[in-house]
């Protein structure tokens, strides 16, 4: 049972809107001592209002050591739905240490009436799904997986990411935009129209911050190549930051 004289030590694996929301909700909460961990993949991450760390742990063994050395009593996996390796490591570390773990698993997007979605499992399949004829392609997959589209160099790509893509990974015909969501529907409509986009490629990240592009694509009558989520280990999940906060508060009370 949690000793109420000392705060409940919590590690939050972050990098998502939900992680930021949870961090803000924990500011000034005397019962919980949180640390938010950021992977450090963006050059200038938005720093949280609670204690934080940046960088990897060094695999499962490194995460286990961190949990033990810092006497972590609960862990929240609020990483991106496509951060499968980190989720795998969190599940393995929780099992090895007995630290309770919950994952914030936002609902996936679903196609609305009138939308044309092409479901694929990998970026290689996404590049192939574009077809042989040259198209103007809007890539909203971040900057780390662009190399797969170098195999389809006939297309003109518009990429959008927080940081600019590396020259050696971007497709040969590529216009890069640096931007951070959330994105407004009117802006997404204008972007698709101004660049003459024929097809959109995205990951099924879910959430509201970047969902407007799907509405804009449906309205414009352009198809969406939807990369489905990778399989994740079977761990307890909650749909949002508010439910994760309730779970933490229960743990802090020793229930």
UniProtKB/TrEMBL annotation:
<dbReference type="GO" id="GO:0016994">
    <property type="term" value="F:precorrin-6A reductase activity"/>
</dbReference>
<keyword id="KW-0560">Oxidoreductase</keyword>
<protein>
    <submittedName>
        <fullName>Cobalt-precorrin-6A reductase</fullName>
    </submittedName>
</protein>
<dbReference type="InterPro" id="IPR003723">
    <property type="entry name" value="Precorrin-6x_reduct"/>
</dbReference>
<dbReference type="Pfam" id="PF02571">
    <property type="entry name" value="CbiJ"/>
</dbReference>
<dbReference type="GO" id="GO:0009236">
    <property type="term" value="P:cobalamin biosynthetic process"/>
</dbReference>
<keyword id="KW-0169">Cobalamin biosynthesis</keyword>
<comment type="pathway">
    <text>Cofactor biosynthesis; adenosylcobalamin biosynthesis.</text>
</comment>
């Amino acid at each position: 049972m949690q000793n109420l004289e000392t705060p409940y030590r919590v590690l939050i694996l972050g990098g998502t809107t939900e992680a930021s929301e949870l961090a803000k909700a924990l500011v000034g909460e005397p019962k919980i001592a949180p640390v938010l961990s950021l992977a450090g993949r963006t050059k200038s991450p938005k720093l949280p209002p609670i204690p934080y760390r940046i960088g990897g742990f060094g695999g499962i063994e490194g995460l286990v050591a961190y949990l033990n050395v810092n006497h972590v009593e609960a862990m929240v996996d609020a990483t991106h739905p496509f951060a499968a390796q980190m989720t795998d490591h969190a599940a393995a570390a929780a099992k090895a240490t007995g630290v309770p773990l919950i994952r914030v698993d936002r609902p996936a997007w679903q196609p609305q009436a009138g939308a044309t979605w092409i479901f694929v499992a990998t970026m290689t399949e996404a590049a192939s799904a574009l077809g042989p004829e040259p198209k103007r392609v809007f890539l909203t997959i971040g900057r780390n997986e662009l190399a797969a589209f170098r195999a389809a160099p006939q297309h003109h790509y518009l990429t959008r990411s927080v940081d600019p893509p590396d020259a050696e990974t971007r497709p040969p015909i590529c216009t890069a935009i640096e931007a951070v969501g959330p994105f407004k529907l009117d802006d997404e409509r204008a972007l698709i129209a101004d660049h003459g986009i024929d097809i959109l490629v995205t990951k099924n990240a879910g959430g509201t911050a970047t969902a407007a592009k799907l509405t804009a694509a449906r309205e414009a009558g352009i198809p969406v190549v939807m990369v489905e989520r990778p399989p994740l280990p079977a761990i307890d999940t909650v749909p949002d930051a508010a439910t994760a906060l309730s779970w933490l508060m229960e743990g802090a009370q020793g229930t």
